Amino acid sequence: xERTTHTTSNLRLLRxxxxxxxxxxxxxxxxxxxxxxxxxxxQSILSFIYQNGExxxxxxxGDANAQYGLGVxxxxxxxxxxxxxxxxxxxxxxxEQGDKDAQYILGVxxxxxxxxxxxxxxxxxxxxxxASQGDVxxxxxxxxxxxxxxxxxxxxxEALKWYxxxxEQGHPxxxxxxxSKYNHGRGAPRNYVTAYAWLNVAVASGYRFATExxxxxxxxxxxxxxxxxxxxxxxxxxxxQQGSQ
Length: 245
Hints:
Structural class: mainly alpha
Number of strands: 0
Number of helices: 14
Low-confidence stretches: 1-7, 19-42
CATH class of the largest domain: Mainly Alpha
Strand content: under 5%
Largest sheet: none
CATH topology of the largest domain: Serine Threonine Protein Phosphatase 5, Tetratricopeptide repeat
Helix content: over 70%
CATH superfamily of the largest domain: Tetratricopeptide repeat domain
Number of domains: 2
Radius of gyration: 20 Å
């Protein structure tokens, strides 16, 4: 029992390492994202645990952390043949227990048709489950689906809502999308000050694609509006920084 508890604790810690660099990743193929972005030392240890049977056993006993970890192993093909269908099976079991990371990645699987038939409606459903638990990646992805009308009816107001939630958590792409929506007046009345402010925050967050649009917005603004927007962006950035502490 003590050994099982220790293994479960290790799995919880390791999955956090795996998710650190994946945290702000846009929607992409599950295998590619996990293969290219997670911490290699954590992955090696996680692989060792599963190859020795402990993780598999815990997953079969219903441990959501172990189920998620086993999904990662199959998605990567680390120590086992790469099998997206098997990965989706384990992600689903963890997702059904309310695991927001599994819900998000299973949503990515459906969006990309990795291991499951491509189904945007199912992807949106899973994103919503994870987004409602505060998962910033899912919030941004759900905003994108509402913006594009994929899997859901196109609704710019709903897109704006989810983009804002992700942007307030520091998601650079969501910050850019929020600024773009205000610039074009989609989901809310056109507001150059708010658009510029969010684009400025996105630039400060390292989202280089926001630079060009910010310059375009600036051309339609008065000096007073630019000064107001810069002050607003400072306030937003400080609020985000405080929220992340």
